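ok trying again, last paste got cut off:
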Amino acid sequence: MSQQNIDVVQSGYAAFGRGDIPGLLALLDAGVEWKTPGTPDLPTAGTRRGHAEVAAFFGTLNEIIDFEQFEPQTFLADGDRVVVFGIDRLKVKGGSGKSLSEDWCHVFTVRGGKIVAFQEYIDTATLAAELKTAAARV
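nice, full thing came through this time. structure:
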């Protein structure tokens, strides 16, 4: 079962990498809970529920960030939980133009072949500061 859950999560990352958000959403349970960290002024932060709210999250992400690299590196599974460690490098659209590098951890809960919960762990301070720079340029 653990490997099947890893396969579901890897399919989600593959869909994201192709820009196939509908394909990613198809892997999510209709009642999925999607949590991303940050203060309320960070547009990507918060808890979202269901396909429409998660799709809106990815729309916001696309509006503000250009990924130069996004790499899930390590997949660990225990029962219905899949933990993924990875890295990314990105630029904030309209920001200073500098690349930001981040280490992250994603925790998925998979039941019945669908992702029912997602929790991201990442330091959001650098991203928040770069978004303030972008807002000041407008």
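cool. The domain at 2-133 is CATH 3.10.450.50 (Nuclear Transport Factor 2; Chain: A,). The radius of gyration is 15 Å.
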